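Kindly inspect this one:
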Amino acid sequence: MSSALLLLLLLLRLSAWSSACSSVSETITVDWRGRGDFSTVQAAVNSVADGNREWIRIHVKPGSYWEKVTIPSRKRYILLEGAGSSVTDISFDAHAHAGIDHIMRRRRRNVSDNSPTFRSATFTVLADNFVARHIAFKNAYNAAAAGERRRKAGHHQAVAALVGGDKNAFYGCAFHGFQDTLCDYQNRHYFRRCIVTGAVDFIFGYGQSIYDRCTVVSTMPPGKQPGWVTAHARDGAGSPGGLVFRGGEVVGLAAAGGGGRTFLGRAWNRFATVVFYRTRMGRVVVPQGWQAWNAGTDVSNVTFAEVGCVGPGSEMTGRVGWEKHLSKEEVKRFVDINFIDDGWLSKQP
């Protein structure tokens, strides 16, 4: 093959790649010190035109932004970008006094149903085609600094982020809370190299998501009952949905001596689906691994599975007898990117 033909093929491939990726049409800057276009994240979101069809970057300068932020469904194609999840965060301390079962009783699919759990979210995205990079979302209600309040009032649902749009992706982000930290509410989502901290049902919802090389940190205090990493549900046996953890790790909070113990998950309903694939599991994981919870005695449709996991918490001899043993074809269906992606990831900016 001639060098000219090789060069032509290379240019064609580069052209195809460039056309697949989207570019940012505008950048809006947020700076709490008043040195940007806006001083709050919500004001920047509000400035995006309804029905927007071009990617707009909202760049948030370092700082802690104490506010509740909502990206409504009519404001699509937003790229929310921080300067790093350790130096840029959106924080608030709202909370609820109702369990996640309350959502199920109040028609779970309607975010506007006035559910106190939903209303507690620091950050809510309902728009399709949303990307977040290098920023943290925090709910400070159950923070360690509020220990005295926790002892008096107990723990309540306090969501850091509710993710409900389709084709939403998070890169290098962090989600910090205690109970119900990340509401992976519904639709398809992708999380890459993110950190999620919490103790009780701290990744929950009806989402169909892949967590790629993410770090999951249990903050359940030592000596307490075990916590739960996930609480997932699906509408029915044939409905889409599932939380897939590819690589990454499940660990305890180092500052608390490794943290208290945790289950990998409990079934929010009898169609719950959670898969851990080649994940490193610390000693924080309890031997049983899973709980049936709302599935009751009928766990035939619950898909809780671990494949190729390592670490002291991955020992399978003490696991519940009803944990699923997936075939090679079933494993491939879950861990392949096609589980969530029909091409939308490559079209992000």
